[in-house]
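Q: I have 328 residues here and want to know how they pack in 3D. Can you give me a structure?
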Amino acid sequence: MRAISILIVDDRPENLLALEQVLETPTLNVVRANSGHEALERTLDHEFALILLDVQMPIMDGYETAALLRGNKKTKNIPIIFVTAATKEQSQVFLGYGSGAVDYLFKPLEPDVLKSKVTIFLELYRQRRLLEEKTRELDAKILELETLKLALEDSNEKLRQLSSLDGLTDLPNRRFFDETIAREWQRGIRRQKPLSLILADIDHFKAFNDAYGHVVGDDCLKRVAKGLEKSILRDVDTIARYGGEEFAAILPETDEAGGVKIIQRMLKSIEALKIDHIASPTADHVTVSFGLSTMLPISDLGPTQLIESADKALYLAKNSGRNTYAIS
């Protein structure tokens, strides 16, 4: 066990020796100082559990030394017991307590009283150190738990994001689409703003897979997804994989004219991809058909009606030769 240090301060060597002989134990490190100045110097190199301080010393007496110790951040909490042969008058005792003393011992010292008082303060020191150690351990544990909590929240957020993404195209998946359109429908009711929905379907995609294989078909889906996504310019808009070769774009507070502009950008974006499609009767490259529907959300209806209307428009576009759009 690490020895605890105490400081004994007296200008008479014989008094220091007497104190040391009474206090000396294997678990106690007794440090001497023969003046107030030397006592202050000793505090720079040691951490003391207690200071036994003689009152009557030349140049700097015990009261002045105690006041300086109390004024120092490092030493202000060290208990000080004054050791004095002076009078026990109340004025002197009050002066000592006013200087920062916690107790008095009067010369000639009684060894049993000295040991008893020192033992009490050493036990208080041990308890304080134990409490500080436990507090540090608790703080470390709290920090560890907070770190784990943040890591768990981050993992949960990543899992939530992954559960909302389509594994092939990295677009939001059907589940995310369903949640978003329901939320935007309610928002539209509150704000009385139009909500537009675009449904998009890759033309003759089964024929594409038959001609090029599913690996190339998957690559086609990814490229089309990126092409459609780049046509969405606002953060509030959502482009999702609706299912198979179908995609959907939710456009809050967007009227029919605004929806048409986005479809036109999408058509140009897919055209620019120039993905060969030798099996398409529509064009020599991959094309996409679009259906657009715009509604003012009301509480008597739901987003299902908007989806059904956009799906009807998509059907019309496909029956109109594909690689185009229709509005319902």
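Q: Anything worth noting?
A: Residues 174-327 form a domain with the Alpha-Beta Plaits fold (CATH 3.30.70.270). The beta strands are 4-9, 28-33, 48-54, 80-84, 103-106, 195-202, 238-243, 246-252, 288-295, 325-327.
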